[in-house]
Amino acid sequence: MTKEEALEALSSIFAEVLDEKDIELDYQMTANDVDRWDSITNMTIISEIESRFNIKLKLREIIKLKNVGALCDAIVSKSK
Fold this sequence. Notes:
Elements: H1 3-18, H2 39-53, H3 59-64, H4 68-78
């Protein structure tokens, strides 16, 4: 899986979880840039990511994620 494929899949997950069909993510985006991306929806997003990619993210890894690009990198590295 490439970083671009991870971003595309994340866009689908975010659209579903946040109920925002037209969401367009980029690598630099953070929770401050996305309406309704708060601590509660973040838990749902992480759960969907783990389920869809069949990976597990440790709390320590989640806390270190600074933006969508870092999340894509984590998905790519764990999907290998």
